[in-house]
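Sequence in, structure out.
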Amino acid sequence: MPTDDFTRLVDAYYTPLFRFALSLARNEADAGDLTQQTFLIWAKRGQELRDQTKVKSWLFTTLYREFLRSRRRAERVEALEDMGGLQDHLAAPEPDALGGDEVGLALESLQEVDEVFRVPLTLFYLQDFSYREITDILNVPIGTVMSRLARGKAQLSALVARKNARNKPNHPSQTTAARP
């Protein structure tokens, strides 16, 4: 692939791929690694893609598979080291950086949705993939995608509602004024 074509491809897809990777990995360093690995694989094997209209889907599928591969590798290493009890320090997105409190709250809550539901939600709502494209990326039936989206939306709504309830100040009628 000529350098100019590769540069245009990276320019067009880096940000959406990075955002997807961030929703999976939940930290910027790993998301950056996944995104770069995806483009490296494209540089090596992208010419094998017969239908060039499927580049976006191919890139997202490759990134997702690399995420799964890296997670399996990490689980094996952790099991071998028998270090149990290690916790990931997951960085939640900054609400202000996302464009508003409600959007920030929703994206922050999305990070808490079970991964099996978070992935299709991210692909559908944040990356604008169709059900069919998501079935290809995740290698699951379309009914499974639809079910995971519905269950994921319900889980996300519950999380957002819970956080909204916690963040609301008490109503003035609920507090008693101090008497002089």
